[in-house]
Amino acid sequence: MNEEKFTGKADVYDRYRPSYPAELIDWLYEKTHAETVADIGAGTGIFTKCLSAKPWKITAVEPNADMLEKLRKNLSGIEIVNAPAENTGMPSASVDLVTAAQAFHWFDKKKFMTECKRIFTPNGRLAVIWNTRTETDMQKERNEIFLRNAGQYDSVNGNANADGKFAPEKYFSEYERVSFLQSMTMDTEQYVGCEMSRSYAPKKGTPLYDVQLDELTRLFEKYQKGGTVDVPYKTDCFLGRF
Question: Per the count of CB atoms within 10 A, which of 32, 89, 160, 198 is most buried?
Fold first, then answer.
């Protein structure tokens, strides 16, 4: 079970994680014409908030208590469900579009598919979305820091790499993919905070927490210009049917 991966990280996650391009929300709205959408693994509501730009009825589903508390503070006027992705408790045949932003890699894929099929309306579709950092010299050095200090970080791709760890052609019967580029300008606090919000980053109070903070701060100082760095991201979305 992965419900506790982000326990104790809700504040830093909510404050520093990147958002998603408005163009992606426009694309999903035009492609699906959905009236109801369930954002599953909603976390603190970063993607859910993006969805609120359109007039669909939104339900946010999140199992982690810390993330759920922040989600409730961040968003009003939407239904919020405390449940895992594989057993949402939502009514059958009630959702036109399910979204999983920066969350799908934590799910039991087969059970999640079964749950999607249960809650889908006849034309229901799933959108799997990731923000992925693009390769730069700074990113390579960042990966090396995590490899040294974060025991759960098992490769330079992390655990949410869309190209490396998701095979949409095997999961969906048919799908479309769209990608958008964006860049986040970050100061020291934002950069270090974003990196420390990762599930695999050492948690406060653990032996390598201060080491990780120090190394990330020194990395920022190496690459900063005028007190900020630009961190490029690619946002990938796979919209499919089963």
Answer: 198
